[in-house]
Amino acid sequence: MIDRLDQIFVSLEHWLVGFLPAGWQAAAGVVLSVVVIIGFFPALFALTTVFERKGLARIQNRYGPNRVGPLGILQPVADGIKSLTKEDIVPLSADAAVHLLAPLMLVVAVFMGFAVLPMGRNMVLVDMDAGLLFYFAMGASTEVAVFMAGWSSRNKYSLLGAMRAVAQMISYEVVLLLSSVVVVMMTGSLSLTKIVDAQNHYTWGLPHWYIFTPWGLAGFVMYSIAATAETNRSPFDLPEGESELVAGYHTEYSGFKFALFFLGEYLAMFSISGLGATLFLGGWSAPFSFLGWVPSWIWFFSKLMLSIFVLIWMRGTLPRLRQDQLMNFAWKFILPLCLLNLFVAALWRFMGDGWLRWVACSAILVVAYVVVGRIEMRSEHFGPRRYRYAE
Amino acid sequence: MLGEGIVKGMAETAKNFFGSFFSAERLTTVQYPEERIATVEAARVFPFLVYDGADWEAGLRCVACQICEKECPPKCIYIEKSKDKKPDVLGKPQFYPAKFDIDISVCMSCQICVEVCPFEAIKMNTEFELSTDDRFGGLLLDRKELAKSNEYYHEIHATEAAGVDAHLAAEKAKSDAKAKAVHDAAAAKAAEKPTGAGD
After folding, report:
1. pTM
2. How far does B38 lie from chain A, in Å, by closest CA?
């Protein structure tokens, strides 16, 4: 019974596909899974927007949307109708074809990332051997879409926003990759299902998730920072800094094209949170061995939503960075620590079992964090800003 | 240490997040159309015309002197003086406004018309729900829409209205006394006249 609940989506798909002739079954199964992913994540997006608005409101001691439907839960429906019925404006001087393609490409690229995420036991669309690589390749192509949007609009704000976005995303892409490499080093595989399997065993009822190791924790923290920057979330939302750039690269978008950008941003958030959960938080595995009876997909989505909650919490807390702070933070602070973390992971691997590796690896990381942090905090670019003329 | 401020900030926002569910004083939002807070006494939105008694047309204090029309900085007041005269509160025959329009889409709520009015005839209203689907006619208030009773004035600006009433009563007493003095003098003169004629 429990097993059946765990595999309910898999068996449902097999049952549905079973009605078709044998030659069609494989293709139909894939199409069915794609349709489910394309339907489910936008629905989750709709729910998340209303929860985000309500959460942010609570952080600021307000009620948030509470007019449409009970407790404002139907707000996304109203928003959807609004954006669907709005006029779709394409600026006269814009490159119409690229302007149209940019939001589509963004959403498509983001959706591709979901293909390799294992969302539960046996619940992965394509179990690729190089799943992680595929994911990062798809994630990187969102940058092209963002730049297409900014460039084709022929608007200075759009272009500036796109330039910022590309600079930021490329900088943090490096960190994102390098902080994930430790996981690949430990697992010895780029396959995301293998990475989950490697974390899915227990000692004294506690899981062997990578976050519970010094290098894993450091990697997870750096991954989270890079992921926040990758998805243009506050405090790294410079590309759409509304106080400086109107709305950044999607200034010239309206109606449903704008909604697609919005959707793409949230889907990227989901997929990157899902990847973070897969790499460091044990994917769909339960946090305690005695909770193993709970369906695996529940664990995956609870970890995903927990990450989303933390992202919303951070958005409600932190002010936006300055452009130079953003760049210095990526290249001068996180990147050296990332490289050090690779070394620490290697040390962990070759020191063998025992308590000594815990002490050594933790000490190296903590000392590096404090020392680099101190140096950075005192440096002219990173620390408190000195104004030359307006003092 | 680096990151300390972030942790502190996150703790603060978490306190707000959970606190807003438990403590009522954190959530200061008023759910406007259903619940509302009483306007403060000094609140002012757009001007209105005060009238005494029951009939708004007869009781209007305005004598169409047009000072407010001239003083109005954005020129949103339009007054047409009447041809005939009618007695005012003091019993003196006065002109009255045949037309008194205020375009509240132009009015900037500066209260200068109230300051300059020598007859306490124009005061500031506190009503703010004036939105309309007719942006020209709907926002041009004529004298019937502008006329509000003195009781209404007492309701919205109690202290100020009491002062105005006292002032008007003093004026009336003064003018009554003056009228009486004039009347008495005339009577005395009339009484004196026969003797003077007898001289």
Report:
1. 0.78
2. 21
